[in-house]
Design brief:
This protein is of the alpha+beta class. It is built from 15 helices and 6 strands.
């Protein structure tokens, strides 16, 4: 069985409650003025914003909160409070101005303390019992918590609005950086420092100092609900794209790569080569190519790859049709060999092309007997004939064989 909590305030005779409320309401206009005056004395930097009737909004809010609280007393201090919406506006204003809520909350506490002194005096005048006044004080601090909560709500709304606006401007800036049309014209018409005035203006709106060099990263989401990488504030991040993108300023700065790798832990992706600011689209293109290869299983997943560390794969694997056609033509002599023997000959040929060494060196590389290598090299000479002496043909053979190794078709 649940025992009801005894309320000292509810035991106060109704006529005393009415007397208390009537006197308190009479005091509200003067009390509100006194509270505002004291707040402005303690916080002289407080801006005095007027409403449409020319009255200070802070004064209106103080008066409304006092009236609401006093009117609430007739229903009992244990009832849910109704808080003036103006306090949401105050929190929203602090958020839009980029200030914290600390000063605002301190002003609220000062106001409640001053109000309580006056209410305690009124309580003595109408003989409200001390236990009931203690209960009233507790209700007053609960009311204060509610005012703070309203301001926090407004503050959060402002912060979310600002964050959304910043992300929108950030995406527009990134799109401008990535735009490839009219690149030469932009270079010709760029202002001081080789940067378009429009680009500089858009960057200034989000407080992004224009760097000289950038690298662009493309990411693969580990899951649809994955938390965005916790990148540094100067890294532009677009999470709206199917493949999230990042623009990293001055990527060669000390410690930048390590910080970026930690921020992107758990994500797969690639960061393109370092380029000048107006060539960001080039870095984006190579990062995208690397991510394509990652999705095909040709580059490792689960980390942020550096494109410059996978140059061979990026050069040889993306032009699939060209490489396959060249492979078909240059490796046609192997068609007469079985798949297993043809692969061994291809591996031996690649080892010879890469080292131009003798049979012992190639044998050590392949893990076979030197005599086996000599036998295979004689077969290779018979299959390709004079092409083995043509530098262009040797280059093409090495190209297609390296591509096959990158695809896992050769060891």
């Amino acid at each position: 069985m649940v025992t009801a909590v005894r309320s000292a305030w509810r035991e106060v005779p109704p006529y005393q409650v009415r007397q208390f409320a009537a006197r308190a309401l009479d005091e509200v206009p003067t009390l509100a003025q006194d509270i505002l005056r004291e707040i402005r004395h303690e916080y002289p930097q407080l801006p005095l914003v007027l409403d449409e009737f020319g009255e200070p909004r802070a004064l209106v809010a103080i008066r409304q909160s006092l009236e609401h609280f006093v009117a609430h007393l007739t229903a009992g201090p244990d009832r849910p409070h109704v808080h003036p919406r103006l306090f949401q506006e105050f929190g929203r204003g602090e958020g839009l101005q980029g200030r914290s809520l600390d000063v605002l909350q301190a002003m609220y506490r000062l106001g409640v303390r001053l109000a309580w002194r006056r209410l305690a005096e009124i309580g003595q005048q109408v003989a409200i019992p001390a236990p009931a006044m203690y209960e009233l004080a507790e209700s007053g601090f609960e009311y204060l918590d509610g005012l703070v909560a309203e301001s926090v709500r407004g503050y959060a709304e402002a912060a979310a609005r600002q964050a959304g606006e910043r992300l929108r401007l950030q995406r527009r800036l990134m799109e401008q950086l990535f735009a490839s049309a009219g690149r030469r014209q932009r270079r010709a018409t760029a202002g001081a420092g080789g940067v378009l005035p429009a680009l500089a203006e858009r960057a200034a709106r989000i407080g992004w100092p224009l760097p000289e060099r950038v690298a662009v990263a493309v990411l693969l989401r580990p899951a649809r609900e994955a938390v965005a990488p916790a990148v540094a504030p100067d890294v532009l991040l677009d999470m709206e794209s199917e493949r999230p993108r990042m623009v990293v300023p001055e990527p060669d700065a000390p410690g930048r790569r390590e910080l970026l790798a930690r921020a992107a832990a758990g994500w797969s992706g690639a960061i393109g080569p370092v380029v000048s600011l107006l060539d960001a689209a080039k870095s984006l293109r190579w990062a995208g190519v690397a991510v394509d290869l990652t999705e095909r299983g040709l580059l490792p997943a689960g980390e942020l790859l550096q494109c410059t560390e996978h140059t061979e794969a990026l050069v040889l694997l993306p032009p699939v049709e060209l490489i396959e056609d060249l492979t078909r033509r240059r490796l046609a002599p192997l068609d007469s060999c079985g798949p297993r023997h043809g692969r061994r000959l291809a591996e031996t040929l690649l080892a010879w092309l890469e080292t131009r060494g003798g049979a012992p060196e190639i044998a050590e590389r392949l893990g076979v007997h030197p005599q086996t290598v000599r036998y295979r090299l004689r077969q290779i000479r018979e299959l390709w004939g004079g092409e083995m002496d043509d530098p262009d043909r040797r280059f093409e053979l090495e190209l297609v064989l390296r591509a096959r190794r990158l695809r896992g078709e050769l060891s």
